[in-house]
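Hi F.,

I've been meaning to write this up properly since the lab meeting, where we talked about keeping a consistent format for the predictions we share between groups. The idea is simple: the sequence comes first, exactly as it goes in, then the structure tokens exactly as they come out, then a line or two of notes. No screenshots and no reformatting. I'm using this chain as the first example so we have something concrete to point to.
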Amino acid sequence: MNTSHRRPSFIKPAFLAMSCVGAFASSAAWANEPADTNASADAGDSKDQEILVNGQRLKEQRQAKDVAPIVNTPRSVILLPKEIIEQTGSVNLQDALRTVPGITFGAAEGGNPIGDRPFIRGFDSQGSIYVDSVRDIGSQSREVFAIESVQVVRGSDSTLGGRGSAGGTINILSKQPQLGTFGSVSGSYGEADFKRVTGDLNLKLSDMAAFRISGVWHDQDVAGRDALYSRRWGVAPSVTLGLGTPTRLTVGYYYLESHELPDSGIPYLYSIGNAPGTGNIASRPAIGQITTAGGRTGTVSRNTFYGLTDRDFRDTRTHQVTVRAEHDFGGVTLRNTARYNHNYQAYIFTQPDDTQGNVYGTAATNPTTGAAGTRGDLLTGGYVWRRANTRYGYSESLINQTDLFGKVNTGSIEHSFSVGTEFAWEKTRRGTFVLATGATAAPRCNTSTVSRYNCTDLFNPNPSDPWVNYVSDTSNVQTPITKIGTAGETQNDANTRAVYAFDSITIVPALIVNLGARYDRFQSKLTVPIANGLPPVSRVDELFNWQAGAVFKPTKDTSLYASYATAATPPNALLGEGQEGNALPTTTTTQNLLDQLKVQKTKSYEVGAKASLFGERLQLGAAVFQTDITNARTQVDANTVAFLGNTRIRGVELNVSGTILPGWTVFGGYTHLDPKIIDAGNSALTAPALTRTVGGVVITDRAAQIVYVPSVNNGKQTPQTAKNSFTLTSNVDVTPRLQVGGTAIYMDKQFGGYSDNRSATQNAAGVVTINAATKLLSREIPSYWRFDARASYRVTDNVSLSVNAQNLTNKVYFSQAYANHYATIAPARTVFGTVNVKF
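Output, unedited:
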């Protein structure tokens, strides 16, 4: 897939200039567009803060928290430039981030909404995504048409952005107006009716003002997947006044609207109740040749889709308005950024369910007598329940950041500093759609649920089944699908007040100390549906996070570093816009636990080395790290939570970016992780009640008892995390006009979740016995290699043609593993061509 912007083959790309202080880096200039004169006219800027392009040095676009160039920053930071996004044909943020080693992705369901869910160093970072250094709340699928570059800061990072950020942050840098007039238009067409048009126009309005507008129209089906489609369009205009002067004002707007049929993926084959055999059992997606418990054999192909075109949909809208004012006082800049953001999302999403045992089956034959026979229960396997996860709602935020940054000297010691404040108001509200899906049927698949298309054939589902909604699972009265309404909606409100400071202290040229601290007062309130009959609950958490690092520079272009950083995740950190292990209570039982809740803490240790080679054209990096969550929320019993949970990620990262030889560029690296859940607390088992029947009357001698046992997750590999991952994107100028290249991606196997068959029984005296597990089920997706290829030809100085082939070998692989029900299958080979015209 393709963003379709220009990348002239006669430009020799600069090295990936990245900068951050546990902070967001500045964007590198790779192409021959005008230099960004938005940067502060800081007379003290050194050559380290410039970018080498075609032998000329261009000033970087200054970010407020950018206090040191990447080689002098004691953190692992990756800058993904727009050239790599374009060359790889990425059309959304998730596509683009796949080129960064060490990032995996989690899948969606009802409680965890559809949207970007990247995992960095094994930790969910969906709540730690920023646009131009401002938090971008709300679950959404982000486009790339208005992106200049993407920065990935790895390691605990609440000092930078506030709450969350256990594994790292993602900062999207948007395209900004520049002094100059230039533009480009591109159009793409390819397999699966792939159609995409993008445009980018920058107009110089005067010697001090410029206007820029970017836009996209995208329409495609999905190669190798039945029925799926994705349609969207967006526009991003912005204007800057005062370019090249000490005082500047930028006003920008971003809008994206999308309509799609979301992919329901492939169900796992087994559940813990029907997995054959004993010991460790891997439950993988039911793809290829499958034999059910009843002996039926068939093939589940890549294109098999279990959703319903008459029911499923996803609609989204994003509005974002940004106003930024700044003024330079010599070598110091004062900047204020105000952002209003509104995201809307609604969907009905089929989640192919396997935990009921429908896929593999629970019996060799179907019952023919009794109530089960009357219902026509289907127990022999070969069916999929079309479980519907539904959601509608919005997120809204108003955020203001004020930053003062620059350089000062205290004697012979140089300080590159940034101090600032943040005030944020955030609100989310969500509800569900009302529909009957067979959820009250037990088992889920029987003659009735099949006839209503709530259950479908594993091997031959029909997405065009004429599904209709009924008043209930047993009613024959049809009814429209409706929203649950305000009485059934949940609302989250939050207010943040924060102050932060960073300082890169050059004691001597060979020794730099890097410090940062941030204080947040995070207040949140949860209002549950009126039907629950419960009052709103709220709490205030005060968060203090810090980071410290030291950099030793054997030479000007090399560095050795060590650092320590923290992160904090308070209850309700995601405001319901993602999966939260530390959520505010929503029921009478959980409200009793409110006072027991605490902030989850994370800390990271890292040592590494960096080098700029060949005149700063090639960047190399290596890091060894450990990240710990040491007091994650765990369940002790029904009335007690504790903060004893511990997850530990150890790893090694190798990164490379830039130009190896003139005309040969590379971007990528390798990550090895040792991701382990040390302690996940307890889980519940129920010892069934003891009953007897006397004269047809059931008498209960002992009520059921709930007991708590150590979690099955203890000692396991953390879900949605790959032990080994490798990516490499490379492009070579074969001639001054012809360029060829490609991408190789390796991802190790990933686990969605774990379960075992421990059980509990009790005797007449009420003594409970825990029966040891005989099965341990791991839901997993296998490792894979994916290869992409690309060729481009510059017809004239302003016209170029390119062809992208994604998943060149047509590999069948899975890109996301959900905890229980399904895994997301990747598209088949997709080939498309692009015509790009610049002016």
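Notes:
Residues 82-87 form the longest helix (6 residues).
The radius of gyration is 28 Å.

If this format works for you, I'll send the rest the same way.

G.
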